[in-house]
Amino acid sequence: MSQFPQSTRRQFLKGVAAAGAATVIIPSANRAFGFQNANDRPTFATIGLRNQGWGITNKTTPYADFAALADVDANVLAENVSKLEKKQGKKPDAYTDYRKVLDRKDIDAVMIATPDHWHTKIAVEAMYAGKDVYCEKPLTLTIAEGKLIEKVVKETGRVFQVGTMQRSESGQRFLQAVAMVNEGRIGKVQKVTCGINGMTGSPEIPVADIPGGLDWDMWLGPAQKVDYRALPEMRTGYGGGVPLYSNCHYSFRNWHEYSGGKLTDWGAHHVDIACWALGATDTGPSKVKPLEYELACEYQDGNPVVHDRYNVATKFKIQADMPNDVEMIITSEGDNGILFEGTDGRFFVNRGKIVGAPIEALKENPLPEGSIEKVYGGPVPANHSVNFIECMESRKQPISDVWSHNRMLEICHLSNIAMRLGRELNWDPEKREVIGDDQANTFLSRENRKGYEIQMG
After folding, report:
1. CATH number of the domain at 170-379+402-439, please?
2. What is the CATH topology of the domain spanning 6-168+389-394?
3. pLDDT score, position 1
4. Buried b (16+ CB within 10 A) or exposed e, 221-259
5. How many of the other CB atoms lie within 10 Å of CB of 457?
6. Which of 108, 190, 275, 323 is deepest in the core (most CB within 10 A)?
7. For the segment 59-75, what is each residue's pLDDT rounded down to a tens digit?
8. Predicted TM-score of the model (pTM)
9. In the chain, where are the structural domains located?
């Protein structure tokens, strides 16, 4: 870390901790409270800038200086360079090729918010380039990619945080939920239901002209070469300003070529908290069974038979058999959130509430002092970015580490594979492979397109 020396890093992290505790920021300077010297701060870059890319950049500017931004869409890049210049008072360098970011010796860490199919290639190459990594969830497109990232983290010693922010944010409701289970407030857990909503299918999406400023071949990257597709109707609200139906911006979540639908999009949040509460962050299910589901198009031998419409699951109810005879249900029906059920009661938690008789009972019998900190492993920081920067100093892995993330994400990936093949899968959590199903095991990995192979070392 050439511009983040040990002495100033320690000073900086003390300031970050103080700022996090008081949540006091100097708006005019966009610096952590008490810090004015830019040399005390780490140097970051963000790769992939639409929506969440800007979100995590914006959230981190109080604690780090951003020297560069990268995106394959020149329009998105220019817009975010302008916003960041106003935010931090200094214009970042702009690149359409992320490799130019990794070549820079002055950048300590990269934040990755590209579509999912790009995560692993950029993350691995960033670690070999000596960068710490913050990568948006879901971390991987396949189970094999997760194992590769684990290997490279161990080999390089880089700090790697996954953007599953529910572990550090949302008013500590999710930390309270984990503490409730750990303290036995619902007795022995018997069932946990993760409500993650469904997706809608699409009409036929025709081939269309590639939007100006978009490097479509680079956007596809490791995925196979296909035509750009879009309908004229535009998306509004979050992620707006792009076609409502396409195989690119925002809608990539609806295609198995680039993502895993709601199973990995929201499953990466709620299944993560469920596994954390169950103490199952270093293991996995014994079986994944699709009880009910609808795919957005027809499939044969696990692959879509058409390529002009969305292809992920639109509705689903999946059962995962977890350790200690716990039944996990992942469903597109009902409230978005997590329902924990045990021998002595049940409660529900999501980003807006935590409710149920065991929660009401806390008025008379509160959790022991320090229960939340015990779950977290220490004082809870102001937000996910602070935890990442603290770990850059300590060289410990963050609360959202790659190992726990990959273990819970395996449940989501297996759920998708089970629906694509139309059958239950028996899983060996030690070997991390499907038992007695060679065809299913072929879906655990995916070959990158020629010219976009991962550069190792």
Report:
1. 3.30.360.10
2. Rossmann fold (3.40.50)
3. 44
4. bbbeeeebbbeeeebeeeeeebbbbbbbbbbbbbbbbbb
5. 8
6. 275
7. 999 999 999 999 999 99
8. 0.92
9. 6-168+389-394, 170-379+402-439
